[in-house]
Amino acid sequence: MCVDMAGRAEELGVIDDAGGLAKQVDRLRGQRTSVLNFKVFAVVFALAGSGLAAQQSVNVPLDQASSVAAQALVAGDAALALQIAEAVLVQRPDDRTALIVIAAAAPRLGDAARGRAAGARAFAVSQSDAQKYEAARLTALAAANDQRYTLATFWLRRALTVAPNEQERNRTLNDARGVTRLNPWSTNLSFSLAPSNNVNGGAEDEASTAPGNPTGTLSADAQAIAGWRAVLAFNTSYRLHQSRESRTTVGAQYRATRVRITDDIDIPDETFTTDYYELSLRHERALENGTLTLRAARALYSYRDLDGPSGAQVLNDEQYDIWRLGIDRRVPLNAQTALSFSVGREWQEYQNRGIGEVNRVTLGTGFVHQLASRDRIGGNITLVDSKGDSVNYTSQDLTLSGNYRWAEPMGPITLGLGGGFRWSDYPDYNLLFAVTGGRQDRTVFANADIGFPEISYAGFTPGLRIDASRTDSNVSRFDRTSFSASLTISSQF
Fold it and tell me: Does any domain span residue 187?
């Protein structure tokens, strides 16, 4: 008797229409001996009718033993299935059917580690995508039921690479999202690569003008420089506590920015290298009307400072420390509309003594509304008041922004648009002399997020982020236009 395990995935519960992987894990938590929801089929042997029930043992040829183990598993006798499969592996260490049986049966009997190991080996020896898909999902289920959610997510990503059709791909995506919700660890890795006409935020030309100051010439690194900007961001958080009313998480973040200059200019790429490190604590609480979030963070930002005349520049490593505290409040007005309010306090301490400390207070409010089409529209108002030891770091900023995201794809893409205005005032800005009337910047900005949901690999999809901005200032150093288009990679769960 021969049983094709790849063709019996549905019977084995590996692909379960009644509920996803996460639902099975959640339902079976605390029931360590019941990992898979098997359908029961009768075990039919060639010896049926010869009094098999009365026999204590049956001699089965080795070539048929794996199939017998599979049938015993389908019938619900995990112990017998495991015993037979283990015996087969003694003679045939890479017998795929026996490995699949162990991957499914061992967790039912409390040995999830053995099930994961067998599933991983079954994946390695599988000959087709359908077989690999089955093995990957079984391994993921064994890991998830043992609360090894990160490992389960890894195997679900592998399953996505060999999903036999769109239906199975969507089922596995839903399972991965469910496992992500169960996982106390949440980790994201993103990368973007963008060509830009202004990688350094420089001025449009070399002339330096400002009210109350003589006309001068800007250094090369203060002028707009074309190039490529790459950003790698990693963040992870761990859920310390969760109940129906509250959740507390601790997190860490790292973001690295590297620049490749394409202009013919005597400035090293490392001039615009930056690194950002952050540790954070977050507590969210459900109230009768909405949610309240408390947040705290400690961060370090490192950058480079270019000193010296052209041809003799010296790169100095600089940094500043950051402390942040904040409160966020979200209030739903109805099922479609919600308001948000935020208050934040930030302290920055620069290593550069010429800058010193900067204290910043941020106030914000916003709304989000879902239309009948399920499209979302939102808007925000943000006010930032900064007071620094240096007058050049004392300012007030007001930003008005809005965004619109379409719920349904437009052909092969998803689309979100945003934009806004920012007014910045530095009342006591100083160059060689105090700027008469202070410095005022006016910025208009726009962005577009374009996704390609039909293109994915292992749960990762590409996207395109387009940013454009124009700043007009009475201090010419800050007259600038920038445009960039970033290729992004993001996870679907």
Answer: no
- pLDDT at residue 309 is higher than 80: no
Whether pTM > 0.85 for this model: the answer is no
Do both 178 and 206 map to the same domain?
A: no
Q: Which of 155, 182, 209 is the last residue of a domain?
A: 182
Residue 191 falls within a domain, yes or no? Answer: no
Q: Rounded to 5 degrees, what are φ and ψ at 295?
A: -140, 145
Write down how long the chain is.
493
Helix locations, 147-252, DSSP H: 149-161, 166-182
Asked whether 394 and 385 are in contact (CB, 8 A), the reply is: no
3 state SS for 119-165 = HHHHHHHCCCHHHHHHHHHHHHHHHHHCCCHHHHHHHHHHHHHCCCC
| Cα torsion 62, 66, 71, 75: sign | positive
Specify whether 462 is located in the same domain as 337: yes
Domain boundary among 122, 150, 182: 182
Read off the tokens for 199: 């990688």
Number of helices (H), then strands (E), belonging to the chain: the values are 9, 16
pLDDT digits (tens, 9 = 90+) for 416-459: 999 999 999 999 999 989 999 999 999 999 999 999 988 889 99
Question: Which structural domain range is residue 37 located in?
Answer: 5-182
In the three-class reduction of DSSP (H, G, I as helix; E, B as strand; rest coil), residue 484 is classed as strand
Choose among 224, 341, 347, 350: nearest CA to 296.
347
DSSP letters spanning 22-68: HHHHHHHTT-TT--S-PPP-----TTTTS-GGG-S-----HHHHHHH
Cα–Cα distance, 459 to 446 (Å, whole number): 29
